[in-house]
Amino acid sequence: MSFSMPAPDVWTLLANLAEETPEAPALLHGERTISFAELHEQSLRVAQGLADLGVGPGDRVALWLPNVPAYLFLYFACTRLGAIAVAVNTRFRAVEVADIVERSGATVLACAPGFRRIDFLSILADVDPHALDKLAAIVIVGEEPATPPATIERLRRVPFSRMLSRPRLGVGHAAPNAPCNIFTTSGTTSAPKFVLHRQGAIARHAQEVARTFGFDALETLALSILPLCGVFGFNQTMTTLAAGKPCVLVESYEIEEIARLIARHRPSTLLGSDDMIARLLELVPGEKPFPSVKWMGYAGFNAALENIAEVAETRGLILRGPYGMSEVQALYAIQPIDAPVAQRKKGGGVVTSPFAHVRVRDPETGELLGVGQPGALECAGPSLMVGYWGNDKATAEALTPDGYVRTGDLGQLEADGSFTFLSRMGDVLRLSGFLVNPLEIETHIQKLSAIEGCQTIAVPRPEGVRAVSFVMLKPGAALDEGEVIAHCRRGLANYKVPVRVFAIDEFPKTPSPNGFKIQRNKLREMAEARLSS
């Protein structure tokens, strides 16, 4: 793909690829290979199928689908129509799906009720019927069950296969400013917000990431493991396609299947989590088990795997910490591949776009901070969202007057021009006047042999704000609270030592596209209740 004349919108990006390299593979799924020409052709037909259902510019189409070709056919069809694809997390259940469909005002919901790994049908059976009142139709990808639940039986149901036989849509409404994507935030304290992006921002970001990351290299092939409903998986796939290179769509999170696909397709890049990497390295033997992978971008969710980058390096797997969020898209920044592992493992790095910029602000005084001073991270650039759909108040709170988004993250600027993500601001502990990353305390506690996992929050006490830790124990282990606190006193500054440590069977979680996020507000409530009693 030539980057000299960038495509102004998502649909033009696909059309250009189909014209330049029509026979080149775009999507690999099971035994099927879909060329760029076929992706373009089928998307045009699906666009006509959606138009038959009344979908036009600005209308919302909810995509509640795993990583299958139909997802991308429907997505590109939406961009042709000027419609908005609403990403619905496949981990969501009845209440969450109903909320997103109802609040977004989606007129079409696409789902795969026969999909073998997620029981979409029983989830739909539990959905409040009134939440689906605005739907003109449900698009059924794959086989429809013989007895659909009453919730959807009354609604018009259209087989996705029928859409593929429609004529190609003639007039299109793609444009740089046409809205095209709604991603849902995975808030732990409120209903998800709807992050709205326009075609120009999606297309430009995909092309800039492809160019900056060198995805135009001959051997580029990506394994799309992370779900398309989240920006991490979506942006990886869009970037690979923007470079004119193929993506392997992975439906399964089963580690054996992922390992099999890596061996079969020999991808050049992977994106995933620290848990996924640890399990892959455990499953596949050898000094260099993944020789085709140049590097892997990863997110660290598990404090117990804090050294996964060093472990992976001994096995020939180079890990790089990226940075992104729904509001600025994924792969907004990434650590340099030649940086020392101690730096490269951290989230953040160098911004992808030459027009992007990062700054750090003192959360209390509002002053802009210099190199090495932790504070509230703010990001700007061409990948920025339009705002929160249907929520002007939240948009005004998130965006600064000069065009930065308040990320809600704690970060710091580095001397080399990069930045480091430290933690979520909501997770940061202010102890004795210092901003403390809870991961520092959690990693230290998890060095104890009895501790499986740890989460630390801050709670106001008469003597000041103090840390409280919750731990999950390894099978058969018992909590010795005194020993944990003594261990902390030996290795941490006194103000970081938890005032109490409580054992818990499982941390409260909320689903996100890339896994589960800890509901730290619930842990805080639990801590306050236990301390007061």
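That was protein one. Protein two is written in the same sequence-then-structure order:
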Amino acid sequence: MRKFFLPSLIAAMLSISCSDDSSNPGTLDVPEELDPSKGGVFATTLVGSVQGESFKNGTAVLFELDEKLVQTGTAVMGVPDTMSRYSVSTAEFTSPYAELVVSGKSVQPCSGREVDSKISVIVDLSKDSTVSLNLFTYFTSERLKELVKNGNMEIPKAWEQAEKEVHKLFALPEGETALEAFATSALFDRLAERTLAKSAPEWRSEFAAIFARGGEFTENDTLRVLGGVALYYDLDSSQLDWCSDIKEKVFEKADVSAYMHALWLSMLDAKECTAERQGEIHAVFNPRLPLTYVQESFPVYMCDSGAWRYAYGYERLNVTDTAGRVDGDYLRREGTSYVFDEVTGWRYANPSEDEYKSGCTKTREGIYLSAAVCMGGSWVSVPESTADTHGLECVADDSLVYGRISHAAYVCEGGSFYKVTEMDEKLGRYCTKKNLGDTAYVGVTPFLCRDSWEYIMPDSLDEWLKDSRDGNRYPIVRMGAYRWMGANLKYADSVASPNLAGNFWGSAFYSWTAAMDLPDDTDPATYEFTLPHRGICPEGWHMPTKAEWDSLFAFAEKFGPAGKMAYSLMGGYSWAGYEKVLNTFGFDIPASGRRELNGDFKNDGRGAYFWFVSQEENKLQYYYLWNSEAEALIGKSSGPDLGLNVRCVEDVE
């Protein structure tokens, strides 16, 4: 077996593996029972070492091989010393060929891990008395056996071919060269533990088997990862300082970098970066593989100005993803955004392009997109109506056009466009510049045109109802077709209104008979109302019917916040969970609760209850609002003595 040496590098690095090759074989003691003088055609003592790892309590067995490199059954055993050097006798061998197998617990360099390891090498005893076991000799031996056993090649020719293939795969220069001390202890040990998640002996055995079969080894995904790290070391040899076994040795990093350069070109089946290859992309890793630490850092490289360098994401896309692309295409991949420019190709997207998910290129200057226009390479926000009506003509005042983007309606006024709002459609009038200050009505309810239509709150109208009976004042709230009291009725004069006697509690709770101002013995089931029914309300006002309450609710639903009708009527801080209270119209309903039939007061802070006039058989009906409900609910009492609130509505002439 030929020996591999690298004169300029190995002298400084070989000791990394804690071995000495054949430079001092005489330091080993040959056991007396293995004395070569006792016979055998090829009687000698084979000495050498294992490079790249240190064995603890290992064994070294030398097996005799025949002309087909098959074991003959003759074997001798030796024991490696603590420096992984070995010595075995070949006294009984009659064949020149033998296989040395060293196995046991191995201490890996750099990491210091102890792993199970096994490594072997084939030797020609007629030529070699000293041989090293390392990555290269192991691969050569495995390939040699395959060529002889299954390829029917003669051993000398097979040996020559196996060595040539190993030289090519591992980029070993011509002549006597070896980098096992470096390659195993630094590059491959690091790869196995941090990239492949396997120990060096594990992946060494797996890939030696693949290599031996003569497969397309350079297409192996894991080997491409190994090549990627070699490229990493080539571009930045200072990264080798991570391993104390290397840092403590003296060697020229330039020599290491030169070897790493040749190694990754070989493993990745790459070429030197020449002027003819300017701009070429080299994909280091198979994109189907899950990303690893190394893959995330070094996925693709580009030939640039005579040297390979890391390729930016957009540079890769310019090689792999331009077919069918159009100007302004936006792409987000692996957390990074890109834009395609038909002039310059892919580039990184700027923040405005990320926001609008579209590219702003020179050829798209002035183009409107949603509420933005492309200006100077970025999307600049503009009013939505500006973008929507860009290119449309305003022919005549009050004419309608529809937006190019949103298809919303716009009304033409004085040469510019005004976007028709939902309130415009509800009120049947446009709140344009020429209409500023105008008032639109829904029934008796006014809306003022400012920047948009606004409901005019009761305090702005300053309208009040004064009850002539007791002097109490109530704000008036205009809700659709009716004017309502903006507070709960508080009238309590049981002398002037005898029907209140015994039927009014607290500050504003009325029984059904008190609210309807009927004698206490009135039978709700037989009583017939004449509408409007004044009840206990002030003169000119009456008790609301269900239809009038429904009209109020419909108004609040249409002109208030969507899906929050009841909350738009609730007011004050008396509600539990009052953050939902909106009081949109100033109707100001408090959560005063109610008086139960048994005299208890309940639901204060949670609900509000109001009697209404019903013509149904069960006339003891009421509406109530609940703090967790967005709609008004109907309740029915089992007796007239339930105490509820009263709101009155003005008579309509």
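Residues 1-39, 286-297 have pLDDT under 50 and may be disordered. Keep this in mind for the problem set.
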